[in-house]
Amino acid sequence: MEFLIAMFCVASLVWLVPVLQSARLVIIAMLVLGVGTVFGPAFFAINGPIQISLDRVLWGAMFGVAAIGWRTGALDFPKLTRIDWMVVGIVGWFFVRTIGSGVVPDGSSPTARWLFYIAMPAGMYAIARLVEIRQQDVRLLTMGGIGLGLYLAITAVLEVTSHHAFVFPHYIVDGEVWEFFGRGRGPLLNPSGNGFVISVGVAAASIGFVYAPRRAKLVYAAIVGVLLMGVYATLTRSAWMGGIGAVGLVALVYSPRWVRVLGLMGVLLLGGASVMGLKDQLVQMKRDKNLSAADAQKSMALRPLLAVVAYEMFKDKPIVGHGFGRYYCHNAPYHSDRSYELPLEIARPYNQHNVFLSVLVDTGLVGLSLFGGWIVCLIGTGWRLVREPAKKPEARFVGLILLGTMIAYFANGMFQDVLIIPMVHMFLFFLGGIAVTVRQKGVLVEVPGTKMVPVIHPSRSMAIEVGNGVNS
């Protein structure tokens, strides 16, 4: 059945050409995110020198539409900012560090890793910087995030409760794909990545709750509850922190100061008490159906061992790193180090479990400075949008969604190498590009009988008239 659906999607791409030509780039980019999450390579792919999947074809078509828009003059390149140059630096430096001799022992391709996990997300960022963001685009982004999050959350709950007949696509509950089986791993087949994307929906739904009319608040509250159930169903501690952090961010921004102080104190007290009382249960929690509670406890013990290996590898090549995607080419000798009196050998088969340590080991201080600096600048951009005194809330929506996404990224990235989890960077780069564009150009709103006007401006909050909105 899924094969037939994939064949139908491939055949329909021809008929989508006129639709893509008439659609706006920002909407096509959102479609790429949705298709990539639900119908990515795990759903259908053609293997070859470069693996081809439905979302990657759509990504290429999106750039075809962008090229047509540039050729016809419908697209204007924005003035490049410091954040834009950082993205250029990340793409270029990471590619330089993929170059090396020899074959990676696990058979993976550093170039393919760079293409799918760095270059393609950077392409999403580029598209987000080319377009004009309209009021309806922000609403569509918010509702799309909520809708996708609901699908993933419900699917995760069905996985955990073993209602496999209702799970679509069905490969999600294929027991032969044993890794993370029994947890809410979703179509990405990774509970951490699944929780990350659901957390984007959590942030969007929490914002909707704040701005919804009184009667609609109950609906949004129920949606947030379902989304958090989905985050819990991932049975992944880092995903839990990301989901709760996304809700807490919105509460922090919109609550009175005294509520924030009391809430923070309450979270610290209750959280500390809960952790102390449930420490053993959290550490020994059985999650995967094919792994015991002891195996789950072992996974936590691996992280400090991997951190030691990362430190030793960093000391040998601190500036340029050992090569992007070439960790397994160089890590073996470091697991034999006996100076720490630690069983480093047991961590040999595992990749780094921290995205920042992974970037540091692979690309050195140069890569980490570019990558970390870009993330810090995005956080600053998101916070400025949140604090923007605008008459319309769309700019604040974008800022809060970005910051909620960053919280989920940090929570998961501190315990997983989220760089190699499908779709995580696609969302991160796209939302980052949207935020930078809104900060630079504002959000456009259609005023009846007038031209497009921005509802915010980087230097002033008054509306100013701009040209007629182009089909970008």
Structure description:
By secondary structure, this protein is mainly alpha-helical. It has one domain. 63% of the residues lie in helices and 2% in strands. The chain is built from 15 helices and four strands. The chain has helices at residues 2-22, 25-38, 54-71, 82-96, 110-130, 135-160, 191-211, 214-233, 237-254, 257-283, 293-316, 327-330, 355-386, 394-413, 424-441; strands at residues 45-46, 52-53, 444-446, 452-454. A two-stranded antiparallel ribbon has the order 1-2. A two-stranded antiparallel sheet has the order 3-4. A hairpin with a 5-residue loop joins strand 1 and strand 2 (52-53). Helix 1 runs parallel beside helix 3 (54-71). The chain is globular, with a radius of gyration of 23 Å. The model is unreliable at 459-472 (pLDDT under 50).
> Which regions have little confidence, pLDDT < 50, spanning 5+ residues?
459-472
Q: What value does the Rg take, in angstroms?
A: 23 Å
Q: Report the structural category.
A: mainly alpha
In DSSP terms (H or I, runs of 4 or more residues), the helix count works out at 15
For the secondary structure, the number of strands is: 4
- Kindly give the count of domains: 1
The backbone outline, from C-alpha atoms, is: globular
Main-sheet strand order equals 1-2
Order of secondary-structure elements: HHEEHHHHHHHHHHHHHEE
User: What's the main sheet like?
Assistant: 2 strands, antiparallel
How far do the termini sit from each other? 36 Å
In helices, the fraction of residues equals 55-70%
